[in-house]
């Protein structure tokens, strides 16, 4: 088809090609009989989908909050039952048949059918054994990941660890320790989980690709990207654009951070890559805490983990959202397992829409610090999205974000709103008379999930999964690829070059999304860009305040603006939703503009070698 278009283009005179396109024909009216036929099918489909999702989510919840063989078995069985429905060959045939008469359907019905096809993508009923094997491998991988206990000492002969640690403890040490030997030990310990996860990902790479290819996608990656209505090349071009647009800013921040960390550790500043164990996060995805003089955690010393979640809720309530239902508080799993407790649970924050209706839960391990403060706001963004679109006008099959990045972006937006100085001062987290230069606040934000983050999300992670699925990257090349990309995009190097050659290691496997949310990490890159577009609009057009120094708290108009986006769920094309909300297409413009004063400051500091 593409070749034909090319041929026609070559043969046609340029003037003809340049001629204005004729006015678009009016959209054909839906045909009542086809609309009714589709609706009968969709009513049944949605009812089954919602019921089976509930059963599967309950089982997944049990397995993620209490790792055991029994719960793993229950999760596998429930996910297989869901797959048997979502990928049933007859269902796929009906969906395709209806979609072949697209013009006769209502646009919303077309969207529902498209989503049904995507849901079938991982579960084609034509190869049930492969689908069941995929689900079993996913469930096993999750148990291996969630049941892993980090070890900060040398294991004894019987394999027992003298110093077991959980993820929060690892993160805390990487945030605080100034001792490079200790940092290397902790960083290396945090990567040990990659060993037991590598065989599982090896199997999953094949199985995930097999199911997606059965459904006509070029790879599992293409299937995940299709949810945006985009092709793989389109997505990669978009992501490359994000990286290129923010490159000068990243380079300046990296140069400054190199020197700052060298000072902190009493080392000469590296001329190129930063050693990974110098940075405050296991994957160097954010560099929180590098800025001197801003101890974000200090304000949380007097607070409890319970206060953090309640305060996050209060922020949304102040905007006009309802208080969370009582069941959220009774059913969620919000805090770490108490010391000495035997239960093992997933350590990464997540938000759950268990029954695609009113049963909403969060799985977290909240402690009283700045990182969990931000994460709690992020997770409640998902929860308020669920609440907003769970209404009769939005069918179960469209109870999703405008796209997945919107879902990530709302909580991220509220997270930057909750880290603005006026709000922190209002809460008493930062003294009202504190002399903090505006560039210092901006610097702290850039080091968080924004400037420092984008090359990880749009580069290292997204490119790795691209090579993994689209490129069938063999397992023996994973380490090399991971560190090649970390060098190229993040300018971060492994603490010890030998680990790149070790075939038993899998540093990519240590990132939970590679196992749990495969092929989707660009969601966060898009969310990062999107949140600045929304933030700029809210600050300038609604609050009429400087985006660098504004306070959303208590503003019902901001709440109404957000609610309007959220309550639509996935009933409309995300491009339309974005354009309508901000007047703009997806773009890094707002983000680059927001950080322009920081870029100027960093350039000055770097030139002076300060
Ligand atoms: O995974 C998350 C959320 C859950 S959706 C806590 N985030 C990414 C990560 O931790 O890698 C939030 C931003 C990036
Ligand atoms: Zn999220």
Structure summary:
The chain is an all-alpha fold and 610 residues long. Helix content is 59%, strand content 3%. The chain has three domains: 2-142, no CATH class; 148-292 and 452-516, Neurolysin, domain 3; 297-441 and 534-584, no CATH class.
Structure description:
The chain has 610 residues and is mainly α. The protein folds into 3 domains: 2-142, no CATH class; 148-292 and 452-516, Neurolysin, domain 3, CATH 1.10.1370.10; 297-441 and 534-584, no CATH class. It has helices at 2-11, 14-18, 32-65, 69-86, 89-99, 107-121, 128-146, 167-176, 180-190, 194-214, 220-225, 232-245, 247-265, 305-318, 326-331, 370-389, 404-417, 421-427, 438-447, 454-470, 478-490, 512-516, 522-543, 556-566, 574-582, 589-594, 596-608, and strands spanning 150-151, 164-165, 274-275, 350-353, 360-363, 492-493. The radius of gyration is 25 Å and the shape is globular. The termini are far apart. The structure holds L-captopril and zinc ion.
* Total discrete domains: 3
In the CATH hierarchy, the architecture of the largest domain is Orthogonal Bundle
Q: What general form does the structure show?
A: globular
Give the terminus-to-terminus CA distance: 58 Å
Mean pLDDT: 94
Q: Give me the Rg, rounded.
A: 25 Å
Helix content: 55-70%
CATH class of the largest domain: Mainly Alpha
Q: Strands of the largest sheet, in order across it?
A: 1-2
Number of strands: 6
Number of helices: 27
Low-confidence stretches: 1-18
CATH topology of the largest domain: Neurolysin, domain 3
Based on secondary structure, the structural category is mainly alpha
